[in-house]
Amino acid sequence: MTRRLFLYQGAGRSIREIARMAGMKPSTLHFRLCVKGMSVADAIAMPITPKHRLNPEGRQPRLYEFRGRMLDAKTIATMIGRHRDTVYRRVVGNRVLDIGETPDPFSGFQDAPSTALLITHDGETLPAAAWAKRMGISKETIYSRIAHGWHPVDAITTPPDPRYTMRTIRFRNRRIIRRIASTFRPMTGGHLPTFANPLGTGVGRHVHHLQSGETA
Question: DNA-binding: present as a keyword of the record (predicted)?
Answer without folding.
Answer: yes
